[in-house]
Amino acid sequence: MKKGKFISCLAVTAAVVLSATLLVFAAQQPPETITIKPSIWNKLSMPPVTFSHKKHVTEDKIACSQCHMVYKDGKNVWKEGDPVEKCEKCHNEPTTKGEFTLPPDKKKLNLKLSFHTLCIGCHRKVKNQKPTANAPIVCNGCHKPAAAK
Ligand code: HEC
Ligand code: HEC
Ligand code: HEC
Ligand code: HEC
């Protein structure tokens, strides 16, 4: 192979690797704020919840793996750079009324409980340590009526 050809070949390879890296990186950037409206529920009975990555990740320095997960042998093996799936991809049990009475295996897959356990669970801990913290545990702290936003 001529030297010129070899170098342009290297350049192309480098460009391909670089753009692939950028693509993965772009795919992993969390949106600053998201309004969570899972598609397994046709209709929400409460106002939809707005969640801020900016607040939780940038300001409060909470690790992605506190909320994003892939389980293997009972351990969360998700690490930064891995694809992020919506909660409902795995927690696809749709009951939203009386979900506490589901059998344990269904409870783990229940979507409403998965959100409440994660979000309210941590906020309770935060409030226990610092009662003045703005980590809502009451319904309308998260399910804000549209007019109050
Ligand atoms: C305190 C919890 C929490 C933390 C910490 C967190 N996220 Fe999220 N993230 C969420 C929730 C909740 C959603 C919405 C999931 C859904 O719609 O089912 C989400 C959605 C996303 C999405 C969009 C997925 C989609 O399909 O729309 C990406 C990408 C993402 N997060 C990446 C990250 C990365 C990277 C980090 C760490 C730098 C991070 N998140 C930290 C809770 C969190
Ligand atoms: C790739 C699949 C997958 C995704 C995506 C996922 N989870 Fe999970 N989640 C699991 C598995 C598996 C477990 C472990 C269940 C067990 O203990 O057997 C689990 C456990 C949990 C638990 C602990 C349940 C308990 O009863 O101890 C909570 C809370 C939870 N997930 C919330 C969420 C939330 C909220 C999201 C979205 C931000 C999410 N999960 C995304 C698969 C997933
Ligand atoms: C690992 C801990 C943790 C988890 C999990 C978590 N939060 Fe928070 N959240 C916090 C902390 C810490 C604050 C900020 C407290 C402060 O600054 O005083 C906060 C603040 C908030 C606020 C008020 C500030 C704002 O952005 O308006 C909302 C709303 C909120 N969280 C929603 C959620 C939702 C929805 C989820 C679940 C998808 C969630 N949080 C999961 C720790 C957590
Ligand atoms: C820390 C935040 C947080 C608090 C506090 C909270 N929720 Fe939720 N809740 C969520 C998230 C996140 C979802 C899933 C996303 C969505 O529905 O927008 C959800 C989903 C629901 C759903 C299923 C969807 C629907 O609208 O029908 C119901 C019902 C619900 N919550 C009721 C309540 C009630 C009642 C309270 C007070 C006792 C409450 N929540 C407190 C975060 C919270």
Features:
6 helices; binds heme C; 4 strands; two-stranded antiparallel ribbon; mainly alpha; 2 domains; 149 residues; 8% strand; Cytochrome C3; two-stranded antiparallel sheet
Can you summarize this structure?
The protein has two domains: 1-30; 31-148, Cytochrome C3.
Topology:
Layout: H1 3-28, E1 33-36, E2 49-52, H2 53-59, E3 71-72, E4 75-76, H3 87-90, H4 104-109, H5 111-129, H6 139-142
Antiparallel strand pairs: 1-2, 3-4
Bound molecules: heme C (4 copies).
Tell me the strand percentage band: 5-15%
CATH topology of the largest domain: Cytochrome C3
Overall shape: it is globular
- Look at the structure and give the CATH class of the largest domain: Alpha Beta
* CATH homologous superfamily placement of the largest domain: Cytochrome C3
**Helical/strand content category:** mainly alpha
Low-confidence stretches: none
Q: Which ligands, by name, code or SMILES, are bound?
A: heme C
Strand order of the largest sheet: 1-2
Write up what this structure looks like.
The protein has about 150 residues and is mostly helical. The chain folds into two domains: about 1-30; about 30-149, Cytochrome C3 (Alpha-Beta Complex), CATH 3.90.10. The protein is built from six helices and four strands. It has helices at about 5-30, 55-60, 85-90, 105-110, 110-130, 140, and strands spanning about 35, 50, 70, 75. Strands 1-2 form a two-stranded antiparallel ribbon. Strands 3-4 form a two-stranded antiparallel ribbon. The N and C termini lie far apart (about 65 Å). The model has no long low-confidence stretch (mean pLDDT about 90). The structure holds heme C (HEC) (4 copies). One heme C (HEC) binds near residues 37, 41, 137, 138 and 139.
